[in-house]
Structure to design on (184 residues):
């Protein structure tokens, strides 16, 4: 029997909503991005083969800060990110990075899913930079908003903090995922 698997529903947003963050419902997020911009000198650039080694170093640092070795899910996720970065030019991926004081502080890896939707596979940011995830999210959306109508930010895997963060951005809709359960 097929049953909805809420932990794996994909969050789909209007690209312009994420890029512009207009209206009262995004006031707090805009404020947090402004705080980041006041506190940190930063630049945004595309991921290229030329900055691959810096990204690998960033991922090691990110993994240490998140204690990936103690977390089965994070350990496998970072393995997938390493693979994606190592094979960046062979995969249909694009990406952005944010530098703070010339050091990589956040990355985003994404691709076109179809004519009107982009899929963000990974966003990673160093925890010492407050609001970095909001900034990489907004920068990625700003790039994609001119190309697609929707951005799929994948599932929350049932992680409460991730679910709250994704809901805070007011998804346009969810893509339901079902699991096959054996009847008892």
């Amino acid at each position: 029997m097929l049953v909805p698997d809420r932990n794996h529903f994909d969050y789909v947003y209007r690209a312009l909503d994420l890029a512009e963050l207009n209206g009262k419902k995004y006031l707090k997020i805009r404020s947090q991005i402004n705080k980041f911009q006041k506190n940190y000198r930063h630049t945004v650039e595309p991921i290229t083969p030329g900055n691959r080694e810096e990204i690998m170093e960033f991922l090691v640092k990110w993994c240490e800060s998140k204690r990936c070795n103690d977390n089965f899910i994070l350990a496998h996720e970072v393995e997938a990110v390493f693979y994606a970065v190592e094979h960046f030019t062979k995969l249909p991926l694009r990406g952005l990075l944010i530098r703070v004081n010339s050091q990589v502080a956040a990355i985003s890896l994404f691709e076109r899913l179809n004519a009107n939707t982009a899929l963000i596979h990974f966003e990673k940011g160093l925890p010492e930079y407050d609001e970095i995830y909001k900034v990489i999210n907004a920068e990625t959306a700003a790039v994609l908003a001119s190309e697609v109508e929707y951005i799929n930010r994948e599932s929350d895997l049932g992680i409460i903090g991730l679910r709250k963060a994704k809901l805070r951005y007011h998804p346009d809709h969810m893509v339901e995922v079902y699991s096959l359960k054996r009847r008892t």
Remarks:
- Strands lie at 2-4, 10-14, 42-46, 94-100, 103-114, 117-125, 150-152, 173-175, 178-180.
- The radius of gyration is 17 Å.
- The longest strand covers residues 103-114.
- Residues 106 and 136 are 7 Å apart (CA to CA).
